[in-house]
Amino acid sequence: MKRIYLLTLSLFCSFALVAQTASISGTVTMASDNITPLEGVSVQAVDANGNLVDFTTTSASGNYVLEDLPVGATYSIVCSFDGSVLLGVSTMDVVLGAMHILGIESLDSPYKILAGDANDSGSLSTLDLVLMRRVILNIDNTFPAGSWRFILESTSFPNPMNPFDATNIEVQLTDDINNLDIIGIKTGDLQQD
Length: 193
Prior knowledge:
By secondary structure, this protein is α+β, with helices and mostly antiparallel strands.
């Protein structure tokens, strides 16, 4: 009887020592229509200590899967994409940004306002327009904010005219998370074309 008890106890302990893991999956699409997939986006799971736990690249259909992530932790999902800095950026975007800043015609989407923040200052300002113009004229070949920013597709904006508080992607992992869909916003592309 004592042996059975010890065997049962040792089996229970060995199962308890096995770390429980889960996965995070979803699709990365463009903000212009929330349908067009972004292929080649680097998607990383970073723990609270800043350690890279897993990474992958989106498929042709924009899908990603981060696997074998220990449960019970909070992860930042960090995305990056090396697409062209000029993709979708034109003088019309500078004009739309100026009209928004001057109060002539507000941008009609929080995604467009986020796209206009070329220096990642948390606002759309004339300095952002100068930076966009410098890229258009090939004076600069990067934006201080990077060419793309990424937010959860399910992000709600309490104040759509000030969407800058809702840009980090963090998840508490207790089980598999499916359909953690992400929107890619092209910096400088206020028309989202």
